[in-house]
Amino acid sequence: MVEHLVDDAGLAELRTRRDDLVGEIDLGDDTFGLAEGPFEHYERTLEVQPDGADHRVTERFSYAMAMPVWWIAFWWPMRHGLRHRSNPWWAPPDRLDARAARVLSLLALIQVVDGYLGTVITQTITFAADEFDRGDAAQGLTLALVRLGIVVALAVVALADRRGRRNLLVGAAAIAVVTTALGAASPGLWFLGGTQMVARGLTMGMGILIGVFAAEELPRGSRGYGVSILALAAAFGAGMAVWVLPVADLSERGWRIVYLVPLLALPGLVAVARRLPESRRFSANRPTAGPARLLRPASRSAEHHRLLLLAATAFLLLVFAAPASQFQNDFLKDHRGYSASGIALFTLFTSTPAGIGIFAAGRLADTRGRRGVGAAGLVGGTVFIVASYYLSGGLMWAGHLVGVILGALTVALGVYGPELFSTTHRARANGIIVTLGVLGSATGLILVGIIVDRLDNYGHALAIVGIGPMLAAALVMARFPETARVELEALNPDDVPLAEPPD
Fold first, then answer.
1. φ, ψ for residue 46 (rounded to 5)?
2. Has this prediction a pTM greater than 0.85?
């Protein structure tokens, strides 16, 4: 409830249908209902009483947000935005309707699980290697082999282009949780690597499908926003793995507990499965039982060109990003003398502010375009991350912090994959892009592991592979199209237009 003391002009404004956080319809008698907005239901009423030459107005709101679980985080911001008749900084550039808000929220919940699963082996392998008495080269080889799980991811996304996004996504999530938990029973590094290869393949498939699903559901002016929200959810999940990591200090086998925690997510995944609908664009472009619909030659050529550009960029970025992330704990433990608790503190302090860059990347990608934002993240993030591996103490913390924030701007490039391919090829194309990224990751991990074993210097190793993101930035600026605020069907004219536009 909000009390207003207004003149005639102020009263007229209050009686005007809103078009900010919510789009209203006039129901009469100073009552306004929901035309569009992220609400399951919404109503605004005015009670007007004269007060001299002015009017005393009591404004009441009744609403329920279409944001499963996440409404808790948005309760106060939404209340504040509605009371002050504003379109706040945290809102998407293009307003979400109830379905889009619900789908994005459910995808974000799955992304939290995906983020945790994708981080487990990164955070624990240095402790597992200590228990199994293995060195840096063995760690690098294990982490590289884990990425061969991309074969599993390719199978998942190929099926998703034929059978739909929803069932494959939820099923992959459940199996990934169980497979990850098997890592707790590892008798050696080979078993840990094998189980996590399957789990990582499933999580990569999940990540691809989440991005594709979101792009197919969100309005054209908020696809970057959606990607940033999902990236924040993944970061939250990864952060949860870091929060649990101090159990590794309890005993030599304490790291195994980290692999069991995701089992707690299984009931939540069942609940999500019940509420998550199938993608509208997949439903509109669903393959028939007959021969597959072929793209026109011009469209096929355009997709091949786009695939080459995105795959090359993914390879060049991840040849640096993977070892910079994966060897961080080993660097801190063996070269800076950090304990598991110290590593957790460093990671949380320097990585949590990456949310600033992630959120900014999504907003700027929608309002200013993808190319410049993404290229700035590639260059700035690489320079400062490399510098942090040459530094120690406070300067190391500061360098890593700035590098992580700037590097998070590369999230803007994550919108391209789901945007630049037709619906019947979208998941598979992104699977191929991720595959090239995985190849880049494996190359970087093996190369950095070998260099560090020989030179005992992470800074030199990362400076060498840091050439990759610099080349990627040049490629983005020179050859990438600008796709901000362009409808998917305009980018992919062979797709069937939706009966109802998403925005």
1. -120, 135
2. yes
